[in-house]
C-alpha cells in the first residue's frame, strides 16, 4: 500500500471540496492518518470518511478535520486547546500548525493510544490530559484557538472564558444526532460574536457542560 499516494489523493479531494488554506492542506499531506487507526483499517485511512477507533468513538472524516482547522486560521504562533483527543489525529494536524496544543480525552484507553501515536511522530508540543474537557484546561489557558471535536448541546461558557482576546473557538452545536459547526470569535476588546457554518454529525460531548449521559 502506497500511503503517500493515497494521502495525495485525499488532499486533492479536500481541495475539490473547497479547502483552500495551504498550511492546512500541507499538514494533512504530511501527517500519516493510517497510524491513528487500527492496522486492519489502514487501507481505508485515506478515504474521506470517519472510522471507528474503539470505545464506540470515531476518528473524524478528513474533510471535517480540514474544515474545522481552517476555521481556526492558525499562523503557527498559537496556543490551542482541543477537546476530544480520540485517535490523536486532529491533535497531530494542529501540532504542525500551531506553537502548542493541549488536548483532553475522557476515555483513558483512547488517550493512551493517542499518546503513543503522537510520540511516534515526535510531536513534542502536544500536552495530553485524561478528563472532562467540557471544563477546558484553565491552568494551561488562555488559548488563541479552541477546537471541540464532539457534539455539544451548547457552547460552554467556561470555554469562552478560556479564549484569549482575538481567539477563535470552533464547536459542533446541536442535538444528540445533528449539529452545526459553530464559530465563536472573541475580539481584542473581549466582545464575543457567533457564526454558524455547515451541518455535521459528531459523537456526543459528555461531561459537566455537555451531555450528561451516553444514551
Ligand atoms: N479528534 C479526534 C480524532 O482526531 O480522532 C476525534 C474525536 S471523536 C469524534 C470525539 C472524542 O471526544 C471521543 O474520543 C470522545 O471520547 C471524546 N469526548 C467526549 N466527551 C468528552 C469530554 N467531555 N472530554 C474529553 N473528551 C470527550
UniProtKB/TrEMBL annotation:
Species annotation: Geomonas limicola
UniProt-listed PANTHER family: PROTEIN-L-ISOASPARTATE O-METHYLTRANSFERASE, PROTEIN-L-ISOASPARTATE(D-ASPARTATE) O-METHYLTRANSFERASE
GO BP annotation list: methylation; protein repair
Name under which the protein is recorded: Protein-L-isoaspartate O-methyltransferase
A family per Pfam: PCMT
Gene, per the UniProt record: pcm
Family per similarity comment: Belongs to the methyltransferase superfamily. L-isoaspartyl/D-aspartyl protein methyltransferase family.
CDD domains assigned: AdoMet_MTases
Location of the protein in the cell: Cytoplasm
Gene Ontology cellular-component terms listed: cytoplasm
NCBIfam families referenced in this protein's UniProt entry, alphabetically: pimt (TIGR00080), PRK00312.1 (NF001453)
Catalytic activity: [protein]-L-isoaspartate + S-adenosyl-L-methionine = [protein]-L-isoaspartate alpha-methyl ester + S-adenosyl-L-homocysteine
Keywords: Cytoplasm, Methyltransferase, S-adenosyl-L-methionine, Transferase
Amino acid at each position: 500500500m502506497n500511503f503517500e499516494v493515497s494521502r495525495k489523493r485525499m488532499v486533492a479531494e479536500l481541495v475539490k471540496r473547497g479547502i483552500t488554506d495551504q498550511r492546512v492542506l500541507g499538514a494533512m499531506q504530511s501527517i500519516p492518518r493510517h497510524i491513528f487507526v487500527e492496522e486492519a483499517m489502514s487501507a481505508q485511512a485515506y478515504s474521506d470518511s470517519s472510522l471507528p477507533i474503539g470505545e464506540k468513538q470515531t476518528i473524524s472524516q478528513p474533510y471535517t478535520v480540514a474544515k474545522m482547522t481552517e476555521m481556526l486560521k492558525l499562523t503557527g504562533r498559537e496556543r490551542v486547546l482541543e477537546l476530544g483527543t480520540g485517535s490523536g489525529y486532529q491533535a497531530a494536524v494542529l501540532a504542525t500548525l500551531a506553537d502548542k496544543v493541549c488536548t483532553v480525552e475522557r476515555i483513558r484507553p483512547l488517550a493512551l493510544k493517542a499518546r503513543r501515536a503522537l510520540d511516534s511522530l515526535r510531536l513534542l508540543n502536544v500536552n495530553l490530559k485524561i478528563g472532562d474537557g467540557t471544563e477546558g484546561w484553565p491552568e494551561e489557558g488562555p488559548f488563541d484557538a479552541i477546537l471541540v471535536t464532539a457534539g455539544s448541546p451548547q457552547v460552554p461558557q467556561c470555554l469562552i472564558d478560556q479564549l484569549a482576546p482575538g481567539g477563535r473557538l470552533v464547536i459542533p452545536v446541536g442535538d444528540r444526532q445533528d449539529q452545526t459547526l459553530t464559530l465563536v470569535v472573541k475580539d481584542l476588546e473581549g466582545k464575543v460574536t457567533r457564526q454558524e457554518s455547515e451541518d455535521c454529525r459528531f459523537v456526543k460531548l459528555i461531561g459537566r457542560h455537555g451531555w450528561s449521559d451516553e444514551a
